[in-house]
Amino acid sequence: MLKKYAKPYPTIGEIIAGKDYDYVSYRGYDEKRDFPPATGNNTDGEFCGCFKVVNGEIIPLDGDSYSNKETVIASEEWTMPDEGIEKGLTVIVEMEFVPAEELDEYFKTYRKERKEKKMLKAVDIKWDVTDDDIDEMDDEACEILESLPTEMIIPEGMTDPDEISDWLSDETGFCHDGFRLVDQDGNDADMA
Fold it and tell me: Are strands 72-80 and 152-153 parallel, antiparallel or unpaired?
């Protein structure tokens, strides 16, 4: 029997913690639009994929990826021995389904929001790969320099130059001797 949850909804991770499931039917439901429409007191959701669970870890069965942080509206454990499923689970997660007739407006709004967000890129990064064992002209240093990017997209919302500087080093494992910040159009970023 489908178990419906009250808000705040549990996450997939909380439901599968320390458990094994041969097959998990991953389904979505849009509460705001009641889509797909609930039948009676039952919310079936729309099939969106499948995975199995081993020791609480998600293993995709369809090549897709799934987050254990998604919130679950309802779940149900089941079996299908004839199909080789001794322990199955259905999870119905919160999703937003956009009707086809609203897609154009949805994408216009999405693009506008993306453009308004301050997206930065570090360019002309000058990496410092030298240390006591490696000098700048060493073959090993040249190989490392060739493998490092000269441009990196900065995570959304990160605007502090010192934080960006630390992030560049943390991401690559190498220090740098400077970089330039540009906006998504390639113009120098105004950090005032």
Answer: unpaired
